[in-house]
Design brief:
The chain is 0% helix and 50% strand. It has 126 residues and is mainly β. Strands 2, 4, 5, 6, 9, 10 and 11 form a 7-stranded mixed beta sheet that branches. A 4-stranded antiparallel beta sheet has the order 1-3-8-7, with no helix packed on it. The chain starts with a strand and ends with a strand.
């Protein structure tokens, strides 16, 4: 039984930075992909950054490439999203995720295959 808890969201001005954290409890296979998705009102949840720990292979959405960095703390069973140079289009609810079975679809939204956190809100004002 996996549980994920996000933290670190908040309200910042354009150009600011935030660090989101995802802390996991329960067993997570060390090779299963994990990462971050986000969702704004009226839109489908979309992938932001996903990592396959044994590789290491990482994917970033084009809109955040070069600004966001996904990192992993194996000892603490946690992962993070460092967000820099934030812009209003980054405003969304951010969710951390991990594969339930090893199936992984990169940045595509396939919610039934993943465990999810409850979300943390990021708001960027202009």
């Amino acid at each position: 039984q996996v549980q994920l808890v996000e933290s670190g969201g908040g309200s910042v001005q354009t150009g600011g930075s935030l660090r989101l954290s995802c802390e996991a409890s329960g067993y997570i296979h060390p090779s299963f992909c994990r990462g971050w998705f986000r969702q704004s009102p009226g839109k489908e949840r979309e992938g932001v950054a996903v990592i396959w720990p044994h590789g290491i292979t990482e994917l970033y959405d084009d809109s955040v490439e070069g600004r966001f960095t996904l990192s992993l703390d194996k000892a603490k069973n946690s992962w993070y999203l460092d967000m820099n140079s934030l812009v209003p289009d980054d405003t969304a609810m951010y969710y951390c995720m991990v594969s339930k079975t090893g199936a992984c679809f990169g940045l595509r939204h396939r919610p039934e295959y993943y465990d999810w956190g409850q979300g943390t809100q990021v708001t960027v004002s202009s």
